[in-house]
């Protein structure tokens, strides 16, 4: 038996959300300079990579200048870890990583859903599990983008804050998280509908047996 329109829409949303969240997770364009400065010290940053152009410890405790794009946990960055990795950014990394991890599991569950027959005894459980997983993943993603959106372009983080803008990787994270929430809710709706349908069928069978 084929899938319902709700189920098909949920699968489509899951695939789209996975693509957007994956791109946001792996690209370094959550915050970047607006290009108006002739020689900006800060270029751009993502969850796992940062690009500098002569950036120096703003407290002037060290003379080291940083150039190019590197992993945010690069050993050379240890002297500016407290600047590069403030609490809000670590929280963003944590919640969006949790979002991505749950989404990977949700992707597997969604794939199982597309292959699973409605007659399978675990079909309803699969719907509930997929919906709950994707919804939780979306909530983690939304928490991450709220945290970063509130603090990411603040004047106390990267230099020349007035020339730093929230960028397209962040936008993809926002859109992907809300599409993911839609997918999770649709799976939960489908699970509830299927449960009601089974209850109606069992109710009719019970009446038939009682009549006999």
UniProtKB/TrEMBL annotation:
Entry keyword annotation includes NADP: no
Transmembrane segments: 12-31, 94-113, 125-148, 168-189
Topological category with respect to the lipid bilayer: Multi-pass membrane protein
Biological processes per GO annotation: regulation of tube size, open tracheal system; septate junction assembly
Annotated keywords: Membrane, Transmembrane, Transmembrane helix
Cellular component terms per the entry's GO annotation: membrane; septate junction
Protein name per UniProt: Uncharacterized protein LOC105368254
Signal sequence, renumbered to the chain: none
Family matches, as Pfam families: Claudin_2
Transferase found in the keyword field: no
Entry's localization field: Membrane
């Amino acid at each position: 038996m084929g899938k319902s329109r709700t189920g098909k829409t949920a699968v489509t949303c899951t695939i789209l959300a996975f693509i957007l969240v994956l791109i946001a997770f792996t690209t370094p364009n959550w915050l970047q300079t607006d290009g108006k400065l002739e020689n900006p010290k800060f270029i751009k940053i993502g969850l796992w990579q940062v690009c500098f152009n002569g950036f120096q410890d703003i407290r002037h405790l060290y003379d080291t200048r940083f150039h190019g794009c590197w992993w945010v946990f690069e050993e050379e960055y240890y002297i500016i870890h407290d600047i590069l990795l403030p609490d809000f950014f670590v929280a963003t990394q944590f919640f969006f990583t949790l979002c991505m991890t749950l989404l990977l599991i949700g992707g597997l569950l969604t794939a199982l859903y597309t292959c699973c027959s409605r007659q399978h005894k675990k079909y309803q459980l699969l719907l509930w599990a997929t919906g709950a997983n994707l919804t939780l993943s979306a909530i983690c993603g939304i928490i991450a983008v709220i945290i970063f959106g509130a603090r990411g372009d603040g004047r106390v983080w990267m230099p020349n804050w007035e020339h730093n803008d929230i960028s397209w990787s962040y936008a993809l994270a926002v859109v992907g998280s809300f599409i993911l929430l839609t997918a999770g809710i649709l799976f939960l709706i489908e699970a509830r509908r299927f449960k009601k349908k089974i209850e109606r069928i069992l109710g009719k069978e019970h009446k038939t047996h009682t009549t006999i």
